[in-house]
Amino acid sequence: MPAMTRLLAVDTSAGRGSVALLDGGSVLTDYSDEPRSHTRRLEPMVNGLLAQAGLRLGDLDALAFGAGPGSFTGLRVTAGLVQGLAFGLQLPVVPVSSLRAMAHAVHGRLDAPAEVAVARDARMGELYWGLYRVTPEAAVEPLLPDSLVSPAALSLPETTGVCLGVGDGWLLREAIPEPVLARVEAIMPDVMPEAGAIARLAETLLHQGEWVGAEAVQPVYLRDDVAWQTSA
Question: What is the pTM (predicted TM-score) of this model?
Answer without folding.
Answer: 0.93
